[in-house]
Design goal:
By secondary structure, the protein is an all-alpha fold. It has one domain. It contains 9 helices and no strands.
Length: 255
């Protein structure tokens, strides 16, 4: 096995592999189902859930920013919490403030585009394989939060406002992800195709979460938020544990 270079260890984001995408998609689904479980099934309500998850995210993000290299458990914990908070932001705007899904989708899309523009304007680099400075990492996490909020809004817009339903919505976003993968295989700009795929996994995960949890009378499979969240979280924990062990073994090799 080839030892990791110092630059690789300084990068704060994992290598983009199949495991990365599996955990990413599952974390987006958990963001949808977990938020529903806490707010509805656990009876906490949107306000308490939003505040509580925002506090936990702030703590996790603080820990992530203090690390000097990619640390699987803190990185993916932060991603899961961003997913829940991103879902809550959209749900509060829609359910509490009455903002239409068309408006919230448009606003988050503009915010995401603006974040990319400023990031590229300052760094001239949007690659996640070069998140090696505090400023780049801040841009990265701002982008991730925007993608989760946008993905929740876009997923709800497609499945509810546009009437696609959960099954067709998940299928449409799945096809778009597959098309992005094909574009990447054809060697179309890898940074561009990565971010397109990253953005699309969120509405795909949101649609998949609704498909699994919602009652059959509403077009879902009726698994419920509790079981879906538990199953997906278990798989995430297993994959992250494997990644954490792998990172530990690589560190021992380099020393």
């Amino acid at each position: 096995m080839k030892p990791l270079t110092k630059t690789a260890w300084l990068n704060k984001v994992p290598e983009v592999t199949l495991s990365f995408w599996v955990i990413k998609i599952m974390s987006t689904t958990v963001g949808e189902t977990g938020a529903d479980y806490l707010a509805v099934d656990a009876g906490l309500g949107q306000s308490v859930t939003s505040i509580g998850m925002a506090v936990l995210l702030a703590i996790a993000l603080f820990g992530q920013l203090r690390t000097r290299a990619y640390t699987p458990w803190i990185y993916w914990l932060t991603v899961v919490l961003v997913s829940v908070v991103g879902t809550q932001i959209t749900d509060v705007l829609t359910d509490k403030l009455g903002v239409s899904l068309y408006a919230s989708t448009g606003v988050f899309a503009v915010l995401l585009a603006a974040n990319f523009a400023v990031w590229y304007g300052l760094e001239r680099n949007l690659s996640i394989q070069e998140i090696v400075t505090p400023r780049r990492e801040l841009f990265y996490w701002a982008t991730v939060l925007c993608t989760f909020a946008l993905g929740t809004a876009a997923g709800d817009l497609a499945t509810e406002a546009l009437g696609l339903g959960f099954t067709l919505g998940a299928l449409v976003f799945g096809v778009l992800i597959a098309a992005t993968y094909v574009a990447w295989r054809l060697r179309i700009n890898p940074v561009l195709t990565f971010w397109i795929g990253y953005i699309l996994t969120r509405p795909f995960g949101a649609s998949l979460g609704d498909l699994l949890t919602q009652a059959k009378t509403y077009g879902g499979l009726g698994m419920g938020a509790t079981w879906t969240s538990a199953i997906f979280l278990s798989v995430i924990i297993l994959l992250v544990a494997v990644a954490q062990i792998s990172v530990g073994n690589r560190k021992q090799i380099t020393h």
